[in-house]
């Protein structure tokens, strides 16, 4: 190298003596490179500061696409001059200033030795070297110019050793990463083998279950002929049972005829016949009765007793000529605006358990509430003074309804009974039994002679108050019948069921005249409008539907969910519909504008809601055992 050629032999000798080795020793060069890399090399560089020049500045090019000559100055010479200036500016901007490359200055021997001693931690040797070195320089024995520079090979060797060291570190890291990746791969392979075995076992179990299922199907198919034979035998036995019952009835009739003939002979109608009959009767008296004849005799006596009891009572007749609905004129005369600004005025704490029903007296300011604590209570409104308390049901009360005259009250209960109460005396006067499960609702006919009830046993019943018996059972719903109501001043019944349908029944015949479908969930309640032209229903997801009773078609569907709608009732004008919701909110629907107003006050679920007859007061009952009055 050029630096090596220009270096005197004395300088090289001094460097060799300081290093204690030859310039070509590879191990010493490696140590020197490590020292330089660890402590950093010291360089002396001559720098000349020149004046700033504008040629070194980089200009930013600005595009001017909208170059144009102003109007009125369209001179050819000026245009050519402007074009030349623009071209010159472009050439100046395109010129790139090339800076001269920085010349690498080799490290001098003095700095190299200082760096080496500092890297090795030989501070005392460094102090001695510096003191002797600068002393010789001051005495003029040694000059800096004659010393020279360290050959470039040492610097390169140090850089290469540093790079080699870094590469070894990277190699070590890569080996560790590879080992970790190998371990992860082995772990994943083990997991794969485990899941593969698990999958095979699942497939084997699946195939086994499929084979077992096929075997069970074949086994079941082998039972089908036996079941068919048993089914046919069952039908045959039913037919024989029916024929036996017919023969039994015929035998009972013959026995009754013989006994009548015997009575006539005893009176003395015919001597010859009397003699024969007496002898036969004596023979019958002397011969013992078998159990079949004895049971027939007892059944005949019971039928006679029932016939005598039924003869004493007379069934009520369903009215044919019903009086017109007086609510039609009331609704036409009531032209005042509908009321929605109800405020909570009073809270009546009447029951220990949730309130299930609230009903208003048809003529007086009396309110009756039923609760799940098996008690109904009557109180005066608006003061809330307690008037009557009814105790008699053995399970929770579900509904109550006033007699059209207001002197009786009907209540339904989870004990499968409907009870009639005399409000003058406060005692139970009649109990109807016949449902197989809990009764959800009850309603009075407008004539006051019939009570209808709906039950969890999927049926509804019509009870005759005068003959004290069930006149008709309504079959047709496929799930619990949750609501029942008579159409005002008619013989039509409306029922709402958990099978998501509404049904209209003729109470005289017990037949379903029409069914309405549209709800997607169980129907909790349904009610007629006062004028009878509309039906409102609500379901278990809070959807309320309005139906046209004349056309038997849906009018509108309002989703107030997701909380269930427990009960719906119209006000006296038929323009406001109230819904008691499962989230404790009373929703008031304006049927004219479609707006929904909310009454907030119940702490928990609201079960029932009803308007007063003038529509000025609203009553609601909740699961907290309270009845709240809004006005």
From TrEMBL:
Residue ranges of coiled coil: 157-191
InterPro entries hit by this protein: WD-F-box_domain-protein, WD40/YVTN_repeat-like_dom_sf, WD40_PAC1, WD40_repeat_CS, WD40_repeat_dom_sf, WD40_rpt
Record's subcellular location: Cytoplasm, Cytoskeleton, Flagellum axoneme
Stretch list, region Disordered: 283-304
Domain of life: Eukaryota
Entry-linked PANTHER family: SPERM-ASSOCIATED ANTIGEN 16 PROTEIN, WD40 REPEAT PF20
Name listed for the protein in its UniProt record: Sperm-associated antigen 16 protein
Originating organism: Aotus nancymaae
Gene (UniProt): SPAG16
């Amino acid at each position: 190298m050029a630096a090596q050629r220009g270096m005197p032999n004395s300088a090289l000798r001094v460097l060799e003596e300081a290093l204690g080795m030859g310039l070509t020793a590879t191990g010493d060069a490696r140590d020197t490179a490590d020292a330089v890399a660890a402590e950093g090399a010291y360089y002396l560089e001559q720098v000349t500061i020149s004046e700033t020049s504008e040629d070194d500045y980089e200009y930013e090019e600005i595009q001017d696409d909208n170059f144009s000559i102003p109007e009125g100055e369209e001179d050819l010479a000026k245009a050519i001059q402007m074009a030349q200036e623009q071209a010159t500016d472009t050439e100046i901007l395109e010129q790139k200033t090339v800076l001269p490359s920085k010349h690498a200055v080799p490290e001098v021997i003095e700095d190299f030795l200082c760096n080496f001693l500092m890297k090795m931690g030989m501070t005392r040797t460094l102090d001695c070297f510096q003191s002797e070195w600068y002393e010789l320089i001051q005495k003029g024995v040694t000059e800096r110019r004659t010393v020279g520079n360290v050959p470039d090979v040492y610097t390169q060797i140090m850089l290469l050793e540093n790079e080699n060291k870094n590469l070894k570190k990277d190699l070590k890291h890569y080996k560790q990463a590879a080992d970790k990746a190998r371990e992860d791969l082995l772990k994943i392979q083990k997991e794969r083998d485990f899941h593969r075995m698990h999958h095979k076992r699942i497939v084997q179990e699946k195939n086994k279950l499929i084979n077992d299922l096929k075997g069970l199907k074949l086994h079941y198919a082998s039972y089908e002929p036996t079941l068919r034979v048993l089914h046919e035998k069952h039908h045959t036995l039913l037919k024989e049972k029916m024929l036996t019952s017919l023969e039994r009835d015929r035998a009972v009739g013959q026995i009754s005829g013989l006994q009548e003939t015997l009575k006539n002979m005893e009176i003395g109608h015919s001597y010859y016949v009397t003699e024969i009959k007496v002898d036969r009767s004596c023979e019958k008296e002397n011969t013992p009765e078998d159990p079949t004849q004895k049971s027939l005799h007892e059944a005949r006596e019971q039928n006679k007793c029932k016939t005598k009891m039924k003869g004493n009572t007379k069934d009520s007749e369903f009215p044919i000529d019903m009086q017109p609905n007086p609510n039609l004129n009331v609704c036409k005369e009531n032209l005042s605006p509908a009321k929605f600004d109800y405020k909570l005025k009073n809270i009546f704490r009447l029951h220990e358990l949730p309130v299930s029903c609230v009903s208003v007296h048809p003529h007086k300011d009396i309110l009756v509430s039923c609760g799940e604590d098996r008690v109904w209570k009557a109180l005066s409104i608006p003061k809330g003074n307690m008037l009557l308390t009814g105790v008699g049901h053995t399970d929770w009360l579900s509904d109550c309804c006033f007699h059209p005259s207001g002197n009786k009250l009907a209540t339904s209960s989870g004990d499968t009974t409907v009870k009639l109460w005399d409000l003058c005396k406060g005692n139970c006067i009649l109990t109807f039994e016949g449902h197989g499960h809990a009764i959800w609702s009850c309603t009075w006919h407008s004539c006051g002679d019939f009570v209808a009830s709906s039950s969890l046993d999927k049926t509804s019943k019509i009870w005759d108050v005068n003959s004290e018996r069930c006149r008709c059972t309504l079959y047709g719903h496929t799930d619990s019948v949750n609501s029942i109501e008579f159409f005002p001043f008619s013989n039509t019944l409306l029922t709402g069921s958990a099978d998501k349908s509404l049904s209209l029944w003729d109470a005289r015949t017990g037949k379903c005249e029409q069914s309405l479908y549209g709800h997607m969930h169980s129907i909790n309640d349904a009610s007629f409008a006062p004028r009878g032209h509309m039906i409102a229903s609500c379901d278990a997801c809070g959807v309320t539907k309005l139906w046209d009773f004349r056309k038997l078609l849906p009018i509108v569907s309002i989703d107030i969910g997701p909380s269930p709608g427990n009960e719906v009732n119209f006000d006296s004008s038929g323009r406001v519909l109230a819904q008691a919701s499962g989230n404790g909110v009373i929703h008031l629907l304006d049927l004219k504008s479609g707006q929904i107003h909310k009454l907030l006050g119940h702490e928990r679920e609201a079960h029932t809601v009803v308007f007063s007859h003038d529509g000025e007061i609203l009553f609601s009952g909740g699961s907290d055992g309270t009845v709240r009055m809004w006005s």
